[in-house]
Amino acid sequence: MTAASGETPKSATIVRMSLMFRVQHVLLMVTLLVLALTGFALMYHENWIGRGLIRLEGGILYRGFLHRAAASLLMAQLLFHAFYMLFTREGKKELGEFLLRRRDFSDFLQAIRYNLGTAAEYPLIGKYGYKEKFQYWGATIGILLISVTGLILWAETFSMRFLPKLVLDVTLIIHGYQGLLAFVILLFWHLYNEHLNASVFPMNDAWLTGRVKAEWLRQEHPLEYEKLKQEGIL
Amino acid sequence: MKRLLSLLLPVALTAALFALPGVAGAKPPTEGECMECHGDKTIEKSLPGGGTLSLFVDEKGYRASVHGKGACTTCHTDAKAPHGKLEKVSCGKCHPDSEKSYAQSTHGKGHAKGEREAAWCSDCHGKHDIRKSGDAASRTFRLNIVGVCLKCHKDRAIEEQYKLPGQQVMEAYENSVHGTALKKSGLLGTAVCSDCHGNHAILPGDQPRSATHRQNIPTMCGKCHPGILEQYEKSVHGKGMRGGIAESPVCTDCHGEHTITKISDPSSPVFSKNIPKTCSGCHEKEGISSRYALPKKRFSTYMDSFHGIALEYGMTKAANCASCHGFHDILPSADPESRVNKANLPKTCGRCHPNAGPNFAKGPMHVEVTPQKAMGVFTVRVFYTVFISMLVMLFVLHVGLEHLGRRRRRREAEGGKG
Lengths: 234, 418
Fold this sequence. Notes:
The complex is a heterodimer of chains A (234) and B (418). Chain A has helices at residues 19-43, 48-56, 60-87, 89-98, 102-116, 130-154, 156-162, 165-196, 206-209, 214-220, 222-230; strands at residues 13-15, 211-213. Chain A has 234 residues and is mostly helical. Chain A has a domain at 19-172. Chain A has a two-stranded antiparallel ribbon with strand order 1-2. In chain A, α3 (60-87) packs across α4 and α6 packs across α7 (156-162). Chain A is elongated. By secondary structure, chain B is mainly α. In chain B, 49% of the residues lie in helices and 1% in strands. Chain B has 23 helices and two strands. In chain B, β1 and β2 form a beta hairpin. Chain B is elongated, with a radius of gyration of 37 Å. Chain B starts with a helix and ends with a helix. The interface between A and B is large, with 44 and 48 residues.
């Protein structure tokens, strides 16, 4: 823990989130928060949570406006993100880091075995390990699903022409529970990994400064640390 | 001095008349003779309980009255000149039908029992100045009736003595759609007391012969609202009522009685926001839904729908029970005429959602989340509930394991150093 590399000072920092990703992250945070507050207002309309939230949002009409405004922003972001990840130099590089590999699954099993004491070594994690990839792909698939169901419900006069009420009822249930699922993942997985985990407590501030300590990277993402070292960046 | 004179004058006059036998004789006195005494504004008699009673008769008022062409002795048959206390006038001699129905009314029965407060002919019609009810100066003219009834029915002492409905009920009428039409707009067509309760034959509403008894209410309201009565008679509620089912709603069950207001008034039980509560007053009752084999959970499933939520939070344009089921013309969904019959649903939904065609109307409208009634919604809900709960448990487990692993790493790092 205290063993520091001779060449890299302990206080050295390295960029982990470029400004482009930090802006996207803040926008995502704001839109998801607004969507959760305005969405749960409707989902829990019959009890104090819903009543309080609807009052906070200026009534049922404005709740809807806010929800759809935030949803539009989120979907625009989703499209922009897809474009950025597929067609820019930085995006392509990051997407490569995020692709799921067989190794992620074995890393996950090895981590568990190590934690239980049955493996000798903790897996060596690259820039993004199984935790980050689970978060990233979970959020992407979730936002896709919630966007599609949300659009069907938003365009209800259009949807009614093609879809029976039966299907719209299921769409609504999926939309609501998908929101709850996203909320639960953010609350338990993201909150723990980026805030409560002892290695970052009280917060991994890369989302604000963009930078992390080289020492933290060496401990948590050793493969990335080695790679940067070989490239001479560290 | 004047007061003393007014007391002495009739006494002196009577004495004078008695002193001149043969002037009046056995022949009934003429109007002129009666007015000799009763034309005096100061003539009065003292009552045993103290106070006085004026014996003055306004001849002009009498002549203008409906009886003005008659003679005093037509009613006061035992009057001589001079005379002492006369017998009570009997109106029934000329108005036998009215007397007969009055005798069967709650007022008539009370009067026969000697209840002094029970209204008698003159309490509503007046005495010497009786006019036809079509005459705007008449006590029983449509615009004046409410005032006549409220003379007693807003008197707290009378209300308490006879256990009558309280003053709120009477005040409610004054603020109702009927009351304001009368008071503010001066409309003759509005309902006044006697239109619903009857006039001579008034009976309390719990008696089957009363105009305001449950079984008579639709017909009674239909006197002024015939088009609505026609719709109601064809509806499931109307047929049930006519079929003798006392629980089947009549007009007042949804609209109220004295409190009836316009449907646009937020205090009305049939104001759009209040309709679900009004309907579920019966339809959420276990007994009623079991007895008549009605589908259950209509209220909660509605309140959970987009329509219900919107209405609950003040969007009064959102569909309420009546928007789909109708109101006066409600029919069971099995009836091909019903607005909620499967075949008619596209048209009913289409009133607000023009695109909702036959394809949309598939599946239940009130979604009861059970495997039998809504398999799709039920499955998705169970899947997500299980999935989310499992995820939460796995997260917690993972956090616990991470904690173990972190301790091990720290131990190994320290061990390696030492």
